[in-house]
Amino acid sequence: MAPNPPSIIVVNNNNTNINIMESSISITARRRVGTGSAPLRKWIECEVEHNYQNQQYQGGSCDEKASKRVILLRATTIAYGIAELLRHSRLSSPRKCIPVDENNDPASNTSTSFSEHCTIDNFIVRELQAADCSNATVAASQSNKLFPTTTWNWDDIDGIDMISTGSSVNIFEPYFLRCGVSDHGNDGQPEDPTNIGRYLEVDFSLDGERATQPSTCEEEDTRCCHALGVLLHTLFYNLSPSICKQEESCATATGMVEFRLPRRKDDDSSQDNDEGNGEDNEEPARKRSSLKTSTGKHSTLLQLGYPSSICLLVQCLLRCEEEENTCRYDSLDAVIKDLHLMLLDPSRFLFDNEPSLESGSMQLLFREHKLYGRENEVSVITDAFCRVSSGRREALFIGGFSGSGKTRLVNSLTARVDVAGGYVITHTFDQMSKDRPLLAVIAVFNQLCLLIREKNYQRSQAIVMELLQAFDSDISVLARLLPNIFAICPELRSSMQEDERNDQVTLRSMCFTLRRFLRVVSSKAHPVVLFLDDLQWCDNSSLTVVESILCDSIESNSLFFVGSYRSNEVAEDHGIFRLIKSLRAYGVPTSTVALEGLNPVDLKTMISDALCIFPRMCESLSTIVHTKTKGNPLFVLEFLRSLVDGKLLNYSLRKRRWIWDEDLINGVEITDNVLFLLTSKMVGLPNNIQSALKVGACFGLTIEEPVVSMLSTTPDYSNILRDLEQVVEEGFMVKIGSSEFKFVHDKVQEAAYSLVPDIEKNKFHYSLGMLLCTKSKGKEIDGIASAIADQINYDFDLLSSESPELRIEVAIINELAGLKARDSSDHVRSSSYFNCAMSLLPTDRWRTHYEITLRITFLLAESVYIRGESAEGILAEILEKSCTFEDKLPAFNLLVIIHFHSQKLGDAFSICYEVLSQRGEQIPESLYPPSQAIQLIEETSKMVEKISYGDLIAMKEMDHELSITMKFYNFITNVAFFSKPEILPFLIHRMIQLTMDYGFCKYSTMGFMIYAVVKISRTKDTEVISTASRLGKTALTCSKKRFQSSDQMVSLYCVYYGLVAFHTEPLQSCADMLQKGFEAALSRGDIGRASSNSVQYIKCLLMAGESLPTLLDKVNSYLELSTTYQSTTFFVYHTIFRETIFALIGKGGSTNPDRHPEHQPAEGANPSILDAIHFHRAIQAYWLGHSERCLYFADKFFQLGTHRGKLNGIEMTFINGLNSFQLLKKQNSAKLRRAGQNAITELESAASNSSWNFSNKVHLLQAEAFSLKGKNEEAEASYASAIRSAQFSRFVHEQGLACELAAYHYNNKKIRDPMSALSYFNQAKQCYIQWGSQMKVDVITRELSNLQIATGPVADAPARCW
Length: 1362
Prior knowledge:
The relative contact order is 0.04. The protein is flat. The protein starts with 7 loop residues before the first strand and ends in an 11-residue tail after the last helix. It has a five-stranded antiparallel sheet with strand order 3-4-5-6-7. A five-stranded parallel sheet has the order 9-10-11-8-12, sandwiched between helices. Strands 15-17-16 form a three-stranded antiparallel sheet. The protein contains 58 helices and 17 strands. With 1362 residues, it is an alpha/beta fold. Helices cover 56% and strands 6% of the residues.
């Protein structure tokens, strides 16, 4: 046992001796509760003894490796505490513990001071104990142990006390960091606790002055470091019995050891100097340790089995006075930083790493998931996502060279998205798939459905219900676009019938469908992150999708779009920059981030981590690498790997660390592109692996499992699966599932593709495609048809030399690929595939290959039309070459749609007439005399008068051939509704007759619906109107029940809720359903019906008193759509609406025809447009107070004769009645009296079927009539009823109007009730404010001012409650 340390005599400036004993009261007082303490020497002896006894008493059952690591960690923690304590003492003002010479020159005595006081006997170790400190010390002394525990942890070290200075340091880990630091997971196995680092901090318990600025004396710092090196060498040397293997040493409590470290066979002696004389000898340069082995010789720490990091640290401290030593320490700060790094990540910077079991050699330990030098960028993307999580949309674009870390930056956000309950969907574009990127974007959203099921299964049913509510009967459109929607709810598949593809889904309609989908699935609770990588390879259609879903003005959602691109591979006119400009113009928050190469400091940290060497010791290598790679992270990784492969960066088994020759590395010739390094490495691989790389690269970033499986059946690539697995072992690809492979980086895929000479690329693609084509006979290839077609089409001209049979097979593959592109709304790509298929057919294809020619020609015509190009020439070829009339029907069908949407109603009618005539139907050109139409309506009424919902449901299904006839009757009825309404009675009679005789089909409903419209337009009988409305509702309900996803719903919604339902259902409900009809039509690409639904929707909202600013936003969004779709009719109607809303808000607008020449009725103009123009001018005139002008336009409106039974007709009757009563106050006119009375009668009739929509209007008309006649009591009661009724129906504009007219009534000269007038004016003002009409607010404000001027100041009257 070592004797107790002597008292230390310290001399101060006054030459006064001070004895500081080990048991200093000042130190003891600073110990934290629950700690024990002992001199450092005693602590070392106990560590050795404790470890030895554990080995002996437990029979070697304890983990020897773990025990050694714990000792190393504890010792390193003590070293860290000593270094911190010494540094803090040096930064403090001169104290009594530092000897000073007579000339007051402390610098001259610094070396002596640190040499004498940096000794083992000057430090006390404090360690956390479970028992009471005093009792533990007694128990330890009795058992010859310092600490009574049989096991210890490296986090038990509590602090260090320095006897000579009376100072202490507490060592601790902040509570919030106690989870540890480690990136060495191992396949789910429990983490070795000694691998988990700790972020330690220190707290000093030092009386007296606080620390001052550090010394700037370099010589003083050097001497301090050397003294610390001597101390640490002594510390670790005396702990060596616990580090050396038991079979190689004999440990005792005295700490002496004798052993010989065996040489390893594979140690490279040519690169390592002799251990005793080389540069790694840790023997002190100036002063040797006083602790010796039994042989009397110094043993190096490396020989004793210490990790190379400990050896290097001690060596650099001991040799810090050698100026030629570039790795020497120049300050205690640098030492503390390295010691802290050891404890923070011991598995990397403290313990020696071992060679890989798989390769048998040492590998560079790159941190796979760490972002170096991107703290600011991480903050930008994290902050953006936090904003998105609060319920908004945002976009972030990341530019940078390939390999700059763009993808890894985005991946750093994944964990945060998971915590927030969000979804991350990603796709990486590549040059191989740049012609079909839209398919990939759709696939990303399809993948979102699977993520929802996996991560939020409990809410999946709720999501399904929300989707059904949002899409209603149009759910089939979503399911066709995103088939994985069935993964969320499989029951949805069984409840949804197969929908005939009558819709013309375009890119814009597909975007609209995705908008509707995201409104449901994305929210604050579940934000969606869409990451599209390598945007430089995408096309404008993909960017259009992004723009559309971000610029959703109707409804907000939590969507975060992140796009990355290679900034050096895009021109200024690339669509990326147009997208950024467009998003910003629309008001979507859009940020950009530019990733440059790593700066030298961050690069040094990256290399330090890879080599497991302190950053300061690899600075020279880092400088060279930065010069050659410009700090590009991927380039750096591949360059370092190339240095290892080239033996310029070696792992020394004897020194147990990486070594290199700076001159040799500096002389390496290298281009400034990582592609060179990757290609060079690939060229050196065996031919079979190179072949696998080439094949994989030809299919893009990923080669799919079906492709691999099919290639493996060919003689040339029978071993492709095994070869690809070897590519994985080389680190170029990763394996997904059983046989799908993906390149680890797009640059790796480019390097692999460059292995194919440019002159041979097309031929190589072609050969792969033909192999797959040959093996695909009789197999299901829908999933890979595009991949096969793309490979063959690279050298399409070579097909001219192939056999006719093979050309037909390739044509069918292109047809399948075209269908796949069509289903994803990529009609540019689909038409390309169909064109390729057509060109492969022989010149006499209509004779030799009739069926496939007919099929592909029609598919091509359909794709061309949806792209916005003329398809009439292609359809004319079909009509000319088809063998049967039945084969012409799809072409006739598409021609009708083309003519109808282009407003060529006459041509559309003629085609329908021809088709129906060919199918045996006789359609009259007109119904004359008119009694014939009346008779047909009566006959139809008899057929349907007793029909019920149950009857319609029980009807049999109409056969297919007859349903085709009904389909063209449906077409001609829609056309006739606008162009030949006089023959509608015959058309609906025939449709209902066929239904009653032969069964129900999805086109039958339109016959019942148009019958209801015609019936209502020809009568004022409330019972008849009620019956007709009920029939329309019954037919609609039956159709939804029998055909859950019928494409006819968009038309039925427009007809029923726009022309029928308002007679019996609230306007607000009608508006909601019309909006669904609009959305369904737009999702199907039916811009005509979308336009019709939107017009009826805005009309209902306007008459229901919707907030005018909100209404204006909706109209503006529709006007944008009309411009986008180039729909003139769409644009005209909503322009008229906008003018009216402007006038009502007070932003302008005039009813003067001369002010709006663009709205002047043209000769032969569409009666519906004339109806709208006159209606809106009359409405504007009335609200603006122009009674005479209102009367003029009302007369023009009624003269058209198209108003009967329509909502605008009833509304105009109401407005004209109110206006007539206003004019009667100025002039006595029989015409005006009749108009007022007729309005009351007609509105009473309408109110009998819908009190919600019309009762308030009846009361207000009656109030005005009573007021005009001087029946004040009746008038006041009617005003009150009108106000209550309007308030109940939520018609705020008409509630305000009733209050305003009541105020005028109370303010007339005969009554003069200013208090009541004031009350009603105030109520009217509040209603108009709520409506958003500043124009009316200004009018009421003036009336209030005039009222007070005329009567004097009047106290505010209380508002009346209705």
